[in-house]
């Protein structure tokens, strides 16, 4: 459970803008010989997210490739039961967020969209679908991809209030900024963001 708590703490640190704290946690753990493969991969994902947030593209992508390699090796009897949710969907979502942090939206958007697609129609992944859609919406707006943002905004709006997720609602609050802080958007997209902003305020 210590591994579980620390992987979550590292991710939470990235989320609140404490990338160096996340890096200390994740790198301090990923080199430990006793870690099973999937847990090691998960710490490497956290490390890559922190490095990307700090703007270190080369090292972020190198560490993410290492995480993918460990993930591809598959699970063993040593991997803890709580790691069941760490799958291709989760890997795609984090890879998308690495690229989004680096400002490479051409690579971020298809990976975030893949994470959304792999979460759809799976009731036990509704929480994941919610956050992946929120991340895709934010990245689409930052990329200036209005048609994609409009489509995703409608999907996200239907989930607000259905699933309790402070992290996702925080993303949506930052994404659905007040109209005066937004670029010029199509009116239907602006309306969708206004609706989301009201729901998460």
Q: What's the structural blueprint in terms of helices and strands?
A:
Layout: H1 2-15, H2 19-30, H3 37-53, H4 57-72, H5 88-101, H6 105-119, H7 126-143, H8 146-157, H9 166-175, H10 187-200
Kindly provide the radius of gyration, computed on alpha-carbon positions and rounded to a whole number of angstroms.
Answer: 17 Å
Low-confidence stretches: none
Broad structural category: mainly alpha
Beta content: under 5%
Determine the mean pLDDT.
Answer: 92
Strand/helix succession: HHHHHHHHHH
Distance between the termini: 34 Å
Structure description:
There is one protein chain. Helix 1 packs antiparallel against helix 2 and helix 3 runs antiparallel to helix 4. The mean pLDDT is 92. It contains 10 helices and no strands. With 201 residues, the chain is mainly alpha-helical.
In short:
71% of the residues lie in helices and 0% in strands.
Q: What descriptors fit this protein?
A:
10 helices, 71% helix, mainly alpha, 201 residues
């Amino acid at each position: 459970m210590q591994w579980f708590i620390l992987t979550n703490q590292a991710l939470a640190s990235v989320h609140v803008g404490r990338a160096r704290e996340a890096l200390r946690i994740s790198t301090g753990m990923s080199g430990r010989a006793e870690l099973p493969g999937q847990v090691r991969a998960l710490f490497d994902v956290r490390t890559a997210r922190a490095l990307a947030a700090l703007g270190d593209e080369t090292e972020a992508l190198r560490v993410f490739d290492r995480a993918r390699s460990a993930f591809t090796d598959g699970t063993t009897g040593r991997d803890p039961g709580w790691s069941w949710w760490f799958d291709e969907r989760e890997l795609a979502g984090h890879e998308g967020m690495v690229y989004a942090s680096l400002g490479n939206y051409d690579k971020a958007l298809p990976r975030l969209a893949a994470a959304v697609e792999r979460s759809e129609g799976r009731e036990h992944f509704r929480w994941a679908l919610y956050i992946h859609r929120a991340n895709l919406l934010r990245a689409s707006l930052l990329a200036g991809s209005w048609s994609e943002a409009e489509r995703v905004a409608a999907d996200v709006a239907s989930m607000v209030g259905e699933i309790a997720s402070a992290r996702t609602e925080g993303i949506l609050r930052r994404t659905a900024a007040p109209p005066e802080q937004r670029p010029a958007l199509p009116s239907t997209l602006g309306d969708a963001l206004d609706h989301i902003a009201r729901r998460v305020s």
